[in-house]
Design goal:
single chain; eight-stranded mixed sheet; globular; six-stranded antiparallel sheet; 605 residues; 19 helices; Aminopeptidase; alpha/beta; 19 strands; disordered N terminus
């Protein structure tokens, strides 16, 4: 593996630079037995990245043109446009299906394991864009290496997900990154960070991704990124599904079986891999916590459907050719493992889906357990705090002349901090069509009520909400939510929608509709209109009503007087006293803070 390639190289010979690119890519392929000298198709179908000196990433038009050329050559590879993006351009999907083309609508019914790769969600992190093009080409050309693998695995690739950001190319916004020379911008055409949009679906991109994801129902998902944070020796790190959050059999299998084999393969390929170094800008010498991927993120979203997800996080300071090669190595090791382990993964997915909906309670929030660290072999650099020549303060500095290998604490145990009893179904009132649309987009099974009926159910009231003071991804996210619960008969009207939990999409439904779930639709402001009152009172008018309320209701009068005695601030605030009585009168609107989605304890016939 080449460690000396860098943006400050003194060699200007383009042929020499291309040789370095070939050698760097070959370092991740040699262990599989494919000879670069005999790869004539690489000369016939070189990627734009391979034609350069290794420091330029493919732009969007050339990426799409390249895949179209491959599709024209081989019926094993097809490319189609599926859905819109905020850029106005359609989202493309590439399918590599082996000896015979498979229609997209039939992929989820195919017995083979399905791998979905997503690229350029952050277009400045372009490693996967270039690695995927060469990977797709080799899949259809190198029968010796991939022929048997494609009998077991279907590979799907989104060439460029954030098209708007990819078209907004520049040379400066990735201030911490060593190449490529020019790249796309993190925000999409509407300045959304698309890796915060998978649950709330504000963008066309996210809606189109959901359509693709539900059609494919992939068993394994890779989202390609570049890391930020600390400096260390590793070229590749990964932010994967958190084992306790993924849970059940799949989480244990991923952590105890699949990942050790995957990381062993990466080590053999020359890229010792560890989890994403989540150190918050500090030196990671004393350990770090595993990143918890809630459903706003791609791998958190895929976990709602029992799909194992990995974000490749190549190290930002490593030369671009190395990062592309490491990403390619990850693809190769993943597809090789999936060809052997895919059937087991499929069985575990279905087992976990069946088990989830049969539980009495389900977790909806998790927190790290700092009392149970594991140990991680970390290849780092010695660091120290030195005086800043710019600010006069102290800054962190790493010394690459002092590498080390140490076992450091890794906090990857998470415990359930919030859980709910599972109802038989949820009721979404017909008026909340935007929420019903999201359920439909995610292939949730639903039934529309045709005739009015009354059933037993539970309703939430939002007692307390604390929201962010500034906008975050187009929302004022609710960080804290407190609820009360009422049980009783609920009237279902024609047009209302019942969402049963006896289905494979049960986990998505629960984590979308339970308000206290970590990325629930309520937290993302989908129900904020219930937090605002629409009717009010004039104090001088309501005084008469308040007198009558106190005269007619002895229990209310006692509560009122007790509160006046116990709370001086209340007893001195005329408006607050009237508000107390107003909320306990028939004049107060019952819809205020009443969460409209109902937990049905029985499913209506």
């Amino acid at each position: 593996m080449l460690r000396s390639i860098g943006g400050n190289t003194n060699c200007n010979d383009v042929r020499y630079q291309r040789l370095l690119v070939v050698l760097c890519l070959a370092s991740c392929l040699g262990s599989a037995g494919s000879s670069v000298a005999n790869d004539t198709w690489k000369e016939e179908y070189p990627t734009p990245f391979e034609l350069g000196d290794g420091w330029d990433t493919t732009d969007y038009p050339n990426a799409i043109a390249y895949y179209r050329r491959l599709a024209d050559f081989s019926d094993q590879l097809t490319m189609q446009e599926l859905g819109k993006t905020d850029s106005g351009k359609p989202l493309s999907l590439v399918l590599v299906t082996g000896q015979q083309a498979v229609e997209l609508s039939q992929v989820s019914r195919d017995k083979r394991t399905v791998l979905l790769i997503n690229n350029a969600i952050h277009p400045g992190e372009s490693d996967g864009v270039d690695a995927s093009m060469a990977f797709a080409r080799d899949l259809v050309h190198d029968k010796q290496k991939y022929g048997a693998i494609l009998e077991e695995v279907i590979v799907a690739i989104i060439p460029v997900y954030n098209i708007g950001g990819a078209l907004n190319r520049n040379t400066g916004t990735r201030a911490n990154q060593n190449g490529p020379r020019e790249y796309g911008f993190r925000g999409n055409g509407r300045n959304y960070d698309l890796n915060r949009d998978f649950m709330k679906c504000d963008t066309r991109n996210a809606r189109s991704f959901a359509q693709i994801f539900q059609l494919l129902d992939p068993d394994f998902f890779i989202d390609t990124h570049v890391s930020n944070g600390a400096d260390y020796q590793h070229v590749m790190t990964t932010s994967q599904s958190q084992k306790d959050k993924l849970g059940m059999g799949l989480g244990k299998y991923m952590d105890g079986v699949f990942e050790p084999m995957l990381f062993a393969g990466m080590k053999r390929a020359g890229y010792p891999t560890i989890p994403y170094v989540n150190s918050g800008g500090a030196a990671p010498d004393d350990g770090f916590t595993q990143f918890l991927e809630t459903p706003r993120y791609s791998t958190g979203y895929t976990g709602l459907f029992q799909t194992i997800g990995y974000m490749t996080e190549t190290h930002m300071l490593k030369p671009y050719p190395q990062r592309v090669a490491a990403t390619r190595a990850f693809f190769d090791q993943s597809v090789l493992l999936l060809s052997k382990e895919g059937r087991k993964i499929q069985a575990l997915r279905q087992h976990d889906r069946d088990t989830y909906r049969q539980q009495e309670r389900a977790p909806i929030a998790w927190e790290v357990d700092r009392n149970k660290p594991t140990r991680l072999e970390f290849h780092g650099y010695e660091s120290e705090r030195i005086a800043s020549k710019v600010t006069g303060g102290m800054r962190l500095a790493y010394d690459r002349a002092k590498p080390y290998v140490r076992n450091i604490p890794y906090f990857n145990e998470y415990t359930v901090s919030e859980s709910v009893s599972l109802p038989a179904a949820y009721l979404i009132p017909r008026e909340w069509h935007t929420v019903i649309d999201l359920m439909e987009l995610n292939s949730v099974t639903m039934r529309t009520i045709e005739k009015g009926i009354s059933v037993l159910g539970e309703t939430y009231r939002i007692e307390q909400v604390e929201s962010r003071a500034s906008a975050y991804e187009g929302h004022f996210f609710h960080d804290k939510v407190e609820l009360s619960t009422d049980r009783g008969q609920v009237v279902l009207r024609p047009g209302d929608v019942v969402v049963p939990l006896n289905q494979d999409r049960a986990r998505y439904v629960v984590e979308a509709l339970e308000p206290k779930a970590m990325d629930s639709l309520f937290r993302w402001n989908r129900f904020d209109t219930i937090l605002q009152r629409k009717e009010y009172f004039s104090p001088y008018v309501f005084e008469v009503t308040a007198e009558k309320l106190l005269a007619d209701d002895e229990d209310l009068r006692k509560q009122f007087e007790a509160k006046r005695q116990a709370e001086p601030d209340f007893s001195s605030d005329r408006r607050e006293q009237l508000e107390f009585l107003y909320k306990r009168s028939a004049n107060y609107e019952t819809s205020h803070r009443k969460y409209p989605v109902v937990r049905l304890l029985t499913i209506p016939e």
